[in-house]
Amino acid sequence: MVGDETSAEEATRTDRATAIRLDGVTVNFEDVRALENVDLRVDDGEFVTVIGPSGCGKTTLLRTVGGLQDPTAGTVRVGRDSPDAARRDGEFGFVFQRHALLPWKSALANVVFLREMAGKSPDREAARDLLGTVGLAGFEESRPAELSGGMRQRVAIARALHLGASVLLMDEPFGELDELTREEMGVEVRRVWRDRNKTVLFVTHSVPEAVFLADRCVVMSDQPGEIAAVFDVELPRPRDESVYGTTAFQEQVARVRTALHEGYELR
Ligand SMILES: Nc1ncnc2c1ncn2[C@@H]1O[C@H](COP(=O)(O)OP(=O)(O)OP(=O)(O)O)[C@@H](O)[C@H]1O
Ligand SMILES: [Mg+2]
């Protein structure tokens, strides 16, 4: 069964359209060059992770893709659109390290609210289903303060999905969670990504997380951020926690770690 799903996924990969494309993207702030000459393509439906040292420009990369930051040089396309047009069309779901839920609203109301703000008709039943999908059935009426950190991030993911976004831009969304919850969330996010056919660009500081989640893992060098290496991650699809114990996983983690250190030494 697992083998069948693997070959089905592999078969579609080569036919996919490009969801995100960066060509020669440089981003300067006043006295800082945050990104330097970044070329990157992400296929429709692909899960790409980005890892690199603190301050190397990962958040800047996500913001540039998401139309929140203009590049100083180079071009960014999201499908056929500019990032700004894609953002206005609601193509992006942002999930950040801090969930940014409204504390006075219930989980369900938080999921619905962002869609309302985006001018789309909210659908409470669909929002309820999404909370079920991310494992929060029964917590619809709980306020953020009554939920654990992992549960709040689940609400934030459901909220991004409810927006109808095709591209999820995730910036260290599990950064504040303990290791076990993180691993569990990783399994969930891959499941949601598969079931709903999203494209994901996911920033993390954790090497195991970057490898576990990825179809491809992008390693960035120290500031200014350049792409130091890109790895195709050949691990079973679908993936569950048992992957963490395999030799193939450990070897891939070691390769990414080496590339990270080499990225440091470039400077
Ligand atoms: N709005 C801004 N104005 C000025 N400088 C900025 C701005 N945003 C980011 N920078 C600078 O650009 C560089 C890259 O920042 P960025 O937040 O993209 O790094 P990062 O890789 O996400 O770091 P971290 O892993 O710590 O989150 C840093 O030197 C940062 O100080
Ligand atoms: Mg960051």
Please provide a written account of the structure.
With 267 residues, this protein is an alpha/beta fold. The protein has 2 domains: 2-91 and 167-265, P-loop containing nucleotide triphosphate hydrolases (Rossmann fold, 3-Layer(aba) Sandwich); 99-165. It is built from 9 helices and 9 strands. The chain has helices spanning 2-13, 58-65, 83-88, 107-117, 124-133, 149-162, 179-196, 207-213, 247-265, and strands spanning 18-29, 32-43, 47-51, 73-78, 92-95, 167-171, 199-204, 216-220, 227-232. Strand 1 (18-29) and strand 2 form a beta hairpin. 43% of the residues are buried. Adenosine-5'-triphosphate is lined by residues 29, 32, 34, 52, 54-60, 223. Residues 20-247 form the ABC transporter domain.
List the helices and strands and how they pair.
Elements: H1 2-13, E1 18-29, E2 32-43, E3 47-51, H2 58-65, E4 73-78, H3 83-88, E5 92-95, H4 107-117, H5 124-133, H6 149-162, E6 167-171, H7 179-196, E7 199-204, H8 207-213, E8 216-220, E9 227-232, H9 247-265
Helix pairs in contact: 4-5, 4-6, 5-6, 8-9
Keywords: ATP-binding, Nucleotide-binding, Transport
Protein name: ABC transporter ATP-binding protein
Domain ABC transporter: 20-247
